[in-house]
Amino acid sequence: MTTSPHRIAVIGGGVAAHTLVKAYGTVSAAADASDEASETMIDIFTAEPHAPYRRPEVNKGILLKGKTPADIALPGAPLEAPGVTLHLSTPVTHVDADAHTLTAGGTTYQWDQLVIATGAGPRLLDPTQNTWLNGRDVHYIRTPEHSTALRARLEELGADDTVVVVGGGVLGLEAASAAATIGAAPVHVLEMADEVCSRMLPPAASQWLRERHGENKVSVTCGLDADALAAEIDRLDPAVIVVSVGAVRDTMLAEDAGIAVGAGPGGGVIVDPAGRTSAPDVWAAGDCVEVHGELDGVEVTVRPEDEGSARALGTIVGRQLGAGNTAEAGSYLEEQRRGWTNQYGLMLNTVGEAGLVEGRREQVELSSPEELVVYSVAPAADGSGDVVVGVTTVGRSPEVRAAKGALGTVLAA
After folding, report:
1. For residue 334, what are the contacts with CB-CB under 8 A and spacing of at least 6?
2. HSE (CB half, 13 Å, CA atoms) of 68?
3. CA-to-CA distance for 27 and 328, rounded, in angstroms?
4. pLDDT tens digits, 343-368
5. pTM exceeds cut of 0.90
6. pLDDT for 230-287, tens place per residue?
7. 309 CB burial (10 A radius; 0-12, 13-18, 19+)
8. What is the DSSP string of 305-323?
9. What is the CATH number of the domain that holds 83?
10. Does residue 66 share a domain with residue 11?
């Protein structure tokens, strides 16, 4: 016998949503022959007009290489499975966690389980506080439309023009790399922190990236306060400004529904390591979340912001839903964190906790214009030496490939 149809609603059409639907299908297929099996209807709501795509490719594919949204789309098979409906250009405007309903496109939908995968958007600067924005051609990057418009603009510029990128994080540096590759205009990166990518990378890797940009005629200036930043923009008088100063997690629907959200401007929808929110039958995954849990006996809070994390937590949530919330589907905090960026044809990869915080140090194993190996290390709990907690690499030589497996290795004191 079968039970009544089970309805799952997913808000968001990115990597997390796509991955959880795929994982759900894999797990639930094993239960199809069971007497407990039930028909499941999955509704995916996205405000965008595109089918799910790889968010990193907005920079790496569309901006740099001129690809289209179709070129960077995720495989369609999971979305074409029986019972799955993708609602494009259909933003959700309200969630009632108590009544188990949501409103989208003027229609109310009932759900048994809800997944919030609303992602994040670029942090927008206030032009009243940043007057250098006024009257200028300013671009933010998040969607395919953003990158398509910026690429077209960069192609128009000549050597007498100037491009300024405000923000020296990964996305800002990728935009600078693309601008230097696409057009003839000089490119300047302006960063308020003391180094580029300082949260993601150890100092030696940040310096390595700066050197690669310098070799490609991109000027990078760090350590600017607000006044110095404004003065530098006035001096450069850029034809185009690209602003990349972080992301804001989209928590509005969760907050309005009374679901717990982290404090501060970077706060996300609070979930446990399995993706459960504070509301029954409501889950969350992707860039919109912050994960609270215990790791090695210590309470931690992690705010993911990469494709690998979206895949990892999306998979965990999908497995939970596919097994009726009974399976040991895994813990996000036990997943290895991975990141990557491609600039000037060189792929920089990170695994683990590559950025340095108090108590950690870096150990440079290899550094050249084409290759890099940097370990981020912390004292081993038993005092036997330092343990590798993060690895940053560039290149494909045997030495580099071997170094990628060093995570967790104890280095002799």
Report:
1. 273, 295
2. 3
3. 12
4. 999 999 999 999 988 889 999 999 99
5. yes
6. 999 999 999 999 999 999 999 999 999 999 999 988 899 999 999 999 999 999 999 9
7. buried
8. -SHHHHHHHHHHHHHHHHT
9. 3.50.50.60
10. yes
DSSP states along 265-333: TT--EEE-TT-B-SSTTEEE-STTEEEEEEETTEEEEE---SHHHHHHHHHHHHHHHHTTS-S----GG
Token digits of residue 327: 């399976």
Q: Which residues pair with 411 in a beta bridge?
A: 386
- Distance separating alpha carbons of residues 64 and 347, to the nearest angstrom: 14
Token couple for 159: 């050597």
Q: Going edge to edge, which strands form the sheet with 38-45?
A: 84-87, 38-45, 3-11, 113-116, 282-284
Do 161 and 64 fall within a single domain? no
Domain identity same for 108 and 25: yes
| Domain ranges, residue 185 | 131-245
Question: In the chain, how many domains are there?
Answer: 3
Instruction: Please give the Cα distance from 216 to 131 (Å, whole number).
Output: 30
CB 389 within 8 A of CB 376: yes
User: Are residues 274 and 383 both part of a single domain?
Assistant: no
